[in-house]
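User: Can you help me understand a structure? I only have the sequence.
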Amino acid sequence: MRRGWKILIGVALALAVLLALNTVIVDHETKSASVTEPGGRILKLPGGELEVVEKGPRQASPIVLIHCFTCAINWWDKMIPLLARDHRVVAVDLLGHGGSEKPASGYSISNQADLVAQALGRLGVSHAEVVGHSLGGPVTIALAEQSPDLVSRMVTIDSIPDTSYGDVGFIGELPFKPVIGEALWRIKPDFSIRNGLGVAFAPGYDVPDAFVEDVKRMTYSAYTGSHDAFDEYTGEKSLPERAAAIGKPLLAIMGAEEQIANDPSEALAAYRAAYPAVKTKLVAGAGHSPNVEKPVETAALVLEFANAPLKGVGSKARGGVGSTNETQRQQQSQSQGQAGNGRGAGTAGDSGSSGGN
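Assistant: Let's start by predicting it. Here is the structure, written out as tokens:
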């Protein structure tokens, strides 16, 4: 009996040492940037290296796409061709995701927005309609806060106002627990990743293999850092409150069959309560990812919002939408578009509000 206890204690100690070593190794893993998307390229920026994909006429009004947590540019694959017919489309892999660099830290929403701003500056993109899916929503709003000249209008897709509107449950939170999380990260099989991704869609949706690979490309630091960043950013102030303070046109889209948001209709109502000028849309038959599940309908909403006229939303003092400076920019852009290729080159400031309630 005494010998049995010694063996048990020895096994427990060995397991504890292995878990401790695994925690250290997993927490310090980093990965360099590499191209993962057809047509993608790496931008070496002061804040890190990001993968971007560009499609559509270069002189057309820009639409910028920012993906969700654990996702990548390929979550926009079905929408990009629809948007790129008449717009310059720029899709970005956030730091820690897809083909972008994966350092040990730097995953705050403000830092992600700063990196996107650096990328857009390198590409010569400004006054864009910026579309953010889930985690991409707060990055979109932070980009408008920090670099207002880069953003003409904002679209959020299934970005809950704050964490009180969504819950992944006890099991869903286990990967973020110290030691346990690192252990689960080390041994995660594909079927487990696929099951975890299932909540990002309506019930019964078949998760593509490519989306499983997106998760496997991440590091644990990127995974937990990005998760915590949303909590910290919305904990300071909700997304609708931040959008209202910015004053730029906003379209908030939610899937009607959401499995992450407790009540998508309630989440959209929170946007309207904080920012009456917002346009909202509930997409039937879609879960957390209408851009994947209902790409044609979602692209139509994004394009309608991009192309409708502005209605004077914003502060003239800030140079926001409806300001004298913004009006002058629109007039200049319209003149350039008429003198150019007829596609409305540089007319990102001429888009407007739509979507319905």
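Now, to help you interpret it: The radius of gyration is 22 Å. Confidence is low (pLDDT under 50) at residues 313-357. Let me know which part you'd like to focus on.
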